[in-house]
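Sample intake sheet
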Amino acid sequence: MKKLQNSLYITRQGAYVHKERETIVIEHERKKLMQLPIHSVSGVFCFGNVLVSPALMGFCGEKGVNLAFFTEYGRFYGRLQGKASGNVLLRRAQYHADEQKMLEIARSVIAAKLVGGRNVLLRHKRNHGVSAPIEHAVKHLAASVRMARHTNNLDSLRGIEGDAAATYFSVFELLINEKLRGDFPFTGRNRRPPRDPVNALLSFVYSILGQDISAALNGVGLDPQVGFLHADRPGRDSLAQDLLEEFRPWLADRLVLSLINRRQLKASDFITEASGAVRLADDARKQLLIAYQERKQQEVMHPFLKEKVLIGIIPHIQAMLLARHLRGDLERYPPCVLR
């Protein structure tokens, strides 16, 4: 089992990150803020104006530490990848997967996403009572799950997923405390850039979670850029985006809703640019990242392994299970769905 290591998120604008012997050092305005051994870190995530020394870049590549760069909004820029790990036969199996195998994996992932979204709505229903729009959305998602499991081509599957996502997000605002909806209005998904605080939060969490999944895929020897559901596109980790679908509802969406409904974030924690783009202020971004790290440290029962595991380990478990399926050790890929 892979040990859960800490991810290092650097949000201080103007920070300088460099190598000192076997450690990572973070400085700001020539003052040392932090120093920690590289063996205690699995990934370094830099947001906005963060300078990383060439020596540290090489050190991260040598040690297999994921080094990724994002805008202040959380939009992914790029990632440093060291020597490819894993078995070339595994990647060959990934590259040469036939249409039926691609469809089966994509169906599993999308069905898991839709079940996860339905569980988020059912959770709200249990806690807050029946709501006609949410009840309708729950039934629509249940029907979409059945359709997704039986569709025979990827285009139809993508259409089912898109329709179900529109239904899910049409009631997402109802999951926000009624007293807070004035500060956190939500009329649907928008991105690149996000134009309201809720979308800013969702996009940010999806982005950092996607990088965790990319690192996990690299760790077992899979190519994150060659997916089964998302079409290949230069610069996009399509396979990571595939697996991200099953994590969105139960990990990312619930985290965002918790931060809002528990009043851990306020409307004043967001900055609206002249262009209309909305981003988190520095302190709010730090608070979100702390909450994300704390969530990763929580223990849950993995539905396939039937073992208690840390949430932060689950991307690595799912990458391992996908690799086993592609090698032929597992008949099907078992996605992770948590209630």
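Comment: The CA atoms of residues 74 and 208 lie 7 Å apart. The mean pLDDT is 89.
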